[in-house]
Predict the structure.
Amino acid sequence: MTTASPRAIVIGGGPAGLSAACLLAKAGTATTLITGPAPAARPHDPRTVALMQSSIRLLETIGVWPGALREVANPLRTLRLIDDTGSLVSAPTVTFTAQEIGADAFGWNIPVEALQGALAATARNLGVASIAASAKSLALADRIVRVRLDDGATLSADIAIAADGRNSVARRTIGISSIDWSYDQTAIATSFCHSQPHADMSREYHRPDGPLTTVPMPGDRSSLVWMERPDTADALMALCDTAFARRLQLETHGDLGAISEIGPRRAFAMSGLTASRFADQRVVLVGEAAHVVPPIGAQGL
């Protein structure tokens, strides 16, 4: 079966793919989004994403920001880096404020699920066609790219945007190689309440086994990315919420006061990837199909 041809096909329904689809549609390009199969009930994603000004401007262009996202996002007005290695000689704590660059905030911390929902709604409003299937292969011709789906359908378009993640089928089937590596680290993502205000400050504690970063959320709540060696991360994941909160309070030196109400926790093995090239004829790689880096440094879109 062959379906009607759009001008652009976006493969991957995550934030990167949705952003690309929205940008194309807003520019007047007939766009089809291949989202992957309709998901079964999936666990809550506890992650947030710190989007700096360039990514916020992208969301403004699409029409997503501020909108409803503003109600669940928190500004990042201060960034603090803390040497917590326990070395005999410690580096001084460094604090950056947005005022130093003449800005109200460096960016905004936004829950991933809220961002995903807002982008999906905007894509629908912009007329992006959506197909709940997976891409099985791509074939390049002189003037078109053909995408074969797992349901037997074939789509053709002038260009394909591959946003299908680190294990990108699109990247692999058109022969773009990648350099892959892994870290002896696991990141724990969650959120928590604290008795002291965060004052719109993100704190990054640089520790021997990896950074521990707290990022402000609305109210007296922050999100957490805690890097540890895998065996230590496994032990932390096995703790009850009360014990985990107690350990986190110690690791943050009481900077946020008493810690409570630990949210759902998820652990992610750390790895990296860089594609040998980000485009080939009529296929462009975006997001983790192009490059994967650990969740430190506000990667953006």
About this structure: The chain has a mean pLDDT of 92.
